[in-house]
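Here's what a typical entry looks like (Zinc chelation protein SecC):
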Amino acid sequence: MTPDSDSPLQASDFDELDAILVDLASRDDAVPPWEFLEGAMAALICTRRPIEASEWMPALLGTGPLPTVPHGDGTHFPSTERYERFMALWARREAEVRAALLADVDSLADERSYHPELVDLRGAVAAMPEAERPRTDGEPLPAFGQAWAEGFLAVVELWEDDWVPPRDKETAGWIHDALDAIAAVVEDDRGTPELNLHEEEAPPSVSQARLDELDAAIWAVYELRRIWTSLGPRSEPVRQAATPGRNDPCPCGSGKKYKKCHGA
C-alpha cells in the first residue's frame, strides 16, 4: 500500500488508468474505456450481493482466471505489477464512490456527493483545430455520460439474477423507474448544445437537457443503492428432500420400511 492509498484519485491517476486500459485493449479491442468501467463500478456497489474482482474482471475486461497469464481468447495484464497497480487504483476509486453514495446529501452541489468521472469527448474534439480532429467515418462520438450509463446497465444485465426486482410492487416500481432514468443517458443527447465541458470557450457540445438527465441518473444510483442495501442479498429457497412414503424403504439403508425405522 502506498501513502496515497486512501486518497481520492487525481487527474494523473485517471490518466494512468486510461494508459493501462489502452494497453489491455491492444490485446483485445473489446476492453472498454474507463468511463464505462466507472458506471460498472457504481452498479457493482449497488448490487445486492458483493461481487468479487475474480467474478467481474473476466466479465468486464475479458481476462482469464489468472489475469496476468496470456491466453488465446481475451486479454491479460502484461505483469503482476501492472495488475496490482490497476487494482490499487480501482480500490481507491471504489472507496471514494462508496463513501459518496453513503453520504447523506440533499444536493449534487455538495462536495461529498457522487460525481462520475466523465469526459466530454464531443467537446474535446470540437475544441481541436479542424485539421487535427480525428476521423469518425460518419459515426457519432459518444454523448456526455453515455458510456457511464452503458457500463452501469451492463452490470445489471450480466448479473440479472441479483437485480431481479422483489415481489413488492411499490419497491419494484422504484427500481424500474431508477433504471429508466439511467437508461435515458444511454440515448444520444438530442438537445441543443449549450455548453462545452472540456473547454469553456470552445463550441458547445452538451445540452442542458443532457445535464438534467445525468443529474436524474445519479440520484437514481443513490436510490438503487438504498433499496438493495435495505433488501440485502437474495436468500435462496430452502429445498428439502422429499419425505419417503410410510411403506417405502428407509433411506438410511437399514432395509426396514420407513414407518418402522426413522419414520416411527
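Residues 120 and 144 are 5 Å apart (CA to CA).

More examples are in the samples folder.
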